Amino acid sequence: MADDAPPVRKIIHVDMDAFFASVEQRDNPDLRGKPVAVGGSSRRGVVAAASYEARKFGVKSAMPSVTAARRCPDLIFVKSRFDVYRQVSQQIRAIFADYTDLIEPLSLDEAYLDVTVDRHGLGSAKAIAEAIRARIKEETQLTASAGVSYNKFIAKLASDQNKPDGLCVIPPAKGASFVASLPIRRFHGVGPVTAAKMERLGIHSGADLAAKPLSFLQAHFRSSADYLYGAARGEDHRPVRVDRPRKSVGAERTFGDDLRDRTALHDALGRVADAAWERVARSEAKGRTVTLKVRLADFTTLTRAQTFSREVAGRDEFLEAGKQMLEEFLPTEKGIRLLGLTLSKIQREDEGGEEDAVQPSLPL
To answer: Where are the transmembrane segments (predicted)?
Structure first.
């Protein structure tokens, strides 16, 4: 029945271009046009963000700083200034709020907006996205890319299509064909491990995924099967959620050689903590539980968790909790091939924003 069909939403995904690095280049003219990495330059440092000039050399976020410096010898490292990034992020969110109350921040530098209700009568979701991008540039001197579509999945894919400083609109009639043309590694929610598994199964593109029956996906991907089946057909009925609850934020690293030495393991855990805490800070997450993940050389995976009576104070306390739990596994004869650290018990369960009126007549 047509009356049972979900409403046609107008979704914008706004993603700031190389946000941290762009803020540093804006504030320091000497950095403009040069390869810049935000993060520590020490042996244990991790890149939090890279300018587009640095990305040309293969430098990217979450990369060890030593690797980044090796790829780009002229790379300039700048210490992160999260207080400044948060301030700029608040400016940007204030711009969003002028166009809609349905805002789902994913991090300091990206968000979903439901603009089904055309508050200012601009006539289309594309016009709203253009107005938002123009105001961001005028008020912050930074550029943003945007994807406009009828659901969150495609809007996020579209925002990456014409970066930097780009806009991409995918209407409902073109959603399935757009998804079919993309490599599976571009799919939001498909990480490197899942992508590698898909490729082993002969799934390299959205078209390959769409060709698989639901029963096949259920057999191989279990709880993700329904999402993948719909995504491959350009379907995603998730609403934009205000104050979207997050379950956890963290990072993990697999080592080229199994580690046994206590000092080497503590150093490795420090690098994992740096990468994880950058993500915690970027997403403005606050949590009380630290979870350590340890995978031994024989692929046995073990976890330990510590819950505090208050929010974890910072990166140092986060790492110290991880080190204390790691000691439970030391010394180790088998060796350790992977370490992970995660912060959880984050935010409250709040799912506002689903009942707002829709206007299916608003064009994309």
So the answer is: none
